[in-house]
Design a protein that fits this description.
The protein is of the alpha+beta class and about 600 residues long. Among the domains are: about 50 residues, no CATH class; about 120 residues, Histidine kinase-like ATPase, C-terminal domain (Heat Shock Protein 90). The strands form four sheets. It has a six-stranded mixed sheet with strand order 16-17-15-14-12-18.
């Protein structure tokens, strides 16, 4: 072998090892990639669903809060409209020429009581009302109004919309209030005719703060009331720094009627939702830190990726260790086994490590040594034992009816029946010449059929009721089978079939080839066996020989198996003649020549004495 050839062999072996290692790593990757893809998809779906649900929930809650504020404002406006039609309010704006002082005081008291009653319906939203009579230049309110009737104040605020300005009740306070003025005049809103009745409705910014505090208690956000150019109304626990940054953002990006944005402030993401108030033209804004809500999902995702990375590293490391400590010794062991398979029993394996494989190598070396001894000693002994077993089985089958035949010859000689004596002696002589020749273990089916003719003629001489018919196809007669294979079966039909009934006496031997197997059928018209007995007999053929079991049929079955393999056997069923059928099946080992007649009946040629 040249250097290039040796190099190519070493290169192929190295590539084989590398290919196996690559397959192991590829398998790890194939296992990891689908898991990562599925988890990433699942995590993204979860993140999107949670984000969507958070946005929808935040919008609904914010819309509900805005509707509550608008509802309370609407109640104040409705009360102002209805209150302006009240008879006492009308009476207050009249001239009251015929009224005395007590009536005027009573009217003022009733008006103030009604306004106080309307203001005290809820503690969360205290409202303030005032009634201005332009005609009388007078004012009635349900709160301590620092100034009296002021014509200029009315003219400045008669815009028909809610205005936001300093709170009149406390000039020292920095809080402001929302105001709305309604006139019962038919003139356009915002103008005074000189005799108008004006109803003022107002509420402090603390009302908004109360609503924001209640909202914040049940949510995750930090709400506030916003109008560009005005100081926002914050909840009492608001994050001043975050709110200031967010107001700066809103001043640059004016919100729509109802919007949602995810913005980044201070390297953190926030969900900003806004809903516009229908009456105040202000925006109810809520800011929710997404990192605090969606953070656990992101942390779980990152932890999963780190875990998968660590598992991947561990898997690759395990594959390397597995290859070095397991795969290489296994390949070495397989290589040694292949050399043993090729017949090289001198192969020995050595290992420098002291582990399980060193023990396997030691046992392998011992095994290869023992196999060599077995081949040289035990195998040859088994061959000789098998030949002895076959001869013993054949010897057990041969002589079991000899004494009956000799008795028949003695009786016929005493009766001076020379023809019967000659016929019996001739058939018995041909029979035993065939059965006692042990040079060969096999014979052709044609020779076995001739032996059956000798045997059946002997039985026919002893029992005149016996009639036999032999019909074997010509192509089967040249096949080789174990000697004395058919005779024990025919003998069984004679003894247990014909011999146990006075009305029977027919024996039929037929054959055929099908499915790569030769089949010979031996039928009798005797009493036969029940289905249960047939099944029990078939089962015994597959079991070891027992003391209570007859050895003739069992020996014949074993000879078939020895000669043709486990697919060959005897099988017992009910005969078409009404008695018992034995089916002999054996596989055709090779194609042989066939040159004998097809039908052998009655006085067919006898067994070949010179086989």
């Amino acid at each position: 072998m040249g250097f290039s050839q040796a190099f190519m062999i070493v290169k192929e072996k190295s590539w084989s090892r590398f290919s196996l290692f690559a397959k192991m790593n590829s398998l790890i990757i194939v296992l990891f990639v689908p898991i990562i893809i599925v988890y990433t998809y699942s995590n993204n779906v979860t993140f999107d669903v949670v984000s969507k649900e958070l946005q929808e929930s935040n919008t609904k809650q914010l819309t509900f809060l805005s509707s509550q504020i608008d509802s309370r404002i609407n109640q104040m406006m409705d009360f102002s409209l209805v209150f302006s039609k009240d008879p006492n309010v009308r009476k207050f704006n009249g001239l009251g020429i015929w009224e005395d002082r007590y009536d005027r005081m009573q009217t003022r008291f009733v008006i103030r009581e009604k306004m106080m009653l309307q203001s005290g319906l809820t503690d969360v939203w205290p409202s303030r009302y005032a009634v201005y009579s332009q005609q009388n230049k007078d004012v009635i309110s349900n709160y301590d109004k620092p100034t009296g009737y002021d014509e200029n104040y009315l003219i400045q605020n008669m815009s028909g919309k809610w205005t936001y300005s300093d709170d009149e009740t406390d000039s020292s306070s920095k809080s402001k209030a929302f105001y709305w003025f309604h006139s019962d005049s038919i003139a356009p809103q915002g103008t005074l005719t000189g005799s108008d009745l004006v109803v003022e409705a107002s509420f402090s910014s603390e009302n908004i703060q109360n609503m924001l505090d209640t909202y914040k208690t049940g949510g995750q956000g930090d709400p506030f009331f916003y109008h560009k150019g005005e100081t926002p109304i914050l909840n009492r626990t608001a994050d001043q720094k975050l709110t200031a940054e967010l107001i700066g953002y809103l001043d640059k990006h004016s919100p729509d009627s109802s919007t949602q944005h995810v913005i980044s402030l201070g390297h953190k993401n926030y969900l900003v939702s806004s809903v516009k108030s229908s009456y105040l033209e202000w925006y109810l804004v809520d800011v929710v830190p997404l990192d605090r809500i969606l953070g656990p999902i992101s942390v779980s995702r990152d932890l999963f990726y780190v875990s998968m990375l660590l598992l991947f590293v561990v898997g690759i490391s395990a594959s390397i260790l597995l290859y070095q400590n397991v795969q290489r010794p296994i390949k070495k062991l397989i290589k040694g086994l292949r050399r043993v398979q090729r017949g090289d029993y001198s192969v020995r394996l050595h290992s420098e490590d002291h582990n399980e494989f060193s023990f396997l190598f030691y046992r392998f070396n011992d095994m290869s040594h023992q196999i060599q001894d077995l081949i040289e000693n035990v195998f040859n002994e088994k061959i000789r034992a098998r030949e002895a077993t076959l001869k013993q089985l054949q010897a057990q089958i041969n002589p079991h009816f000899l004494y009956n035949c000799l008795g028949y010859i003695i009786n016929m000689a005493q009766m001076k029946d020379e023809e019967a004596v000659v016929s019996m002696a001739y058939n018995l002589s041909a029979y035993y010449r065939y059965t006692t020749r042990m040079e060969r273990d096999t014979a052709t089916l044609n020779d076995e059929v001739k032996l059956l003719v000798n045997y059946l003629d002997i039985q026919k001489l002893r029992n005149g009721r016996i009639e036999y018919h032999i019909d074997i196809p010509q192509e089967m007669l040249g096949y080789s089978i174990p000697r004395l294979l058919l005779q024990p079966i025919v003998e069984n039909s004679v003894i247990h079939g014909v011999g146990k009934s006075y009305s029977s006496g027919e024996i039929r031997i037929s054959g055929g080839i099908s499915g790569g197997c030769c089949r010979v059928y031996i039928d009798d018209d005797g009493p036969g066996l029940s289905p249960e007995q047939q099944e029990a007999l078939n089962r015994k053929m597959r079991e070891p020989l027992q003391e209570e079991m007859g050895c003739g049929l069992w020996n014949t079955n074993q000879r078939l198996i020895h000669q043709f393999g486990n697919q060959s056997a005897l099988h017992f069923t009910e005969s078409p003649l009404g008695g018992f059928r034995t089916e002999i099946v054996w596989e055709i080992p090779v194609q042989e020549e066939h040159s004998l007649p097809t039908n052998l009946r009655g006085e067919t040629a006898h067994a070949n004495d010179h086989c």
